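May I ask for a sample protein chain and its fold as tokens?
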Amino acid sequence: MTGTIDKRNAYPTIEVGMVKGTNNSDKYEASLMAIMSYLGKHYNVAYANVLGYSAGGGGVYHYLIDHGYDRSLPPIKKFVSLDGQYNACTAQPDQTLAQVLADGPKIKTKYYDFWLKNYERVDKNIQVVLLEGAYDTKKETDGTVPWADGFSIYPLLIKNGNSATHYLIEGTNTEHTEMPSNQKAIGYVKTFFYE
């Protein structure tokens, strides 16, 4: 961990990443827990908005389930999932995206089973946006994560009473590895976080 937060900066941006990429959401959850704990102890942070990219989306969702009601930590107000992974990159060949959004995935991995059993532990006040890159519309994927995976938690969020929306980012630079620098996605995140 490097750097400090200027006391005059009311909206600091803190970037968390792995030295080597991983699709293990548990590592992202642990990192987020360490950061939120540090912010809670050393800074007067009223709340945080969090973006989770790829497996980091699963890490944030896991954090919300495990630590969302811990009042020693700054509360999370808004969560953006950018090409998030929630069902082990499992496509749903016998379901349309509309069906997944309405009913959740038919093919469920152990990861999704965890969300299904614990989704009610997420604070209902957290606003959530799920963004996916529309890289390959025929295969319904960003080239790595199927849309059915990235949007699979949408019905759980709605059932839980969260304010949740989902969007496909169309145009150029929508492949999974390009989404963190996609200008449409960045613009949407800024607007959502700072409105």
Summary: The two ends are 29 Å apart (CA to CA). DSSP finds seven helices and four strands in the chain. The longest strand covers residues 76-82. The CA atoms of residues 141 and 171 lie 14 Å apart.
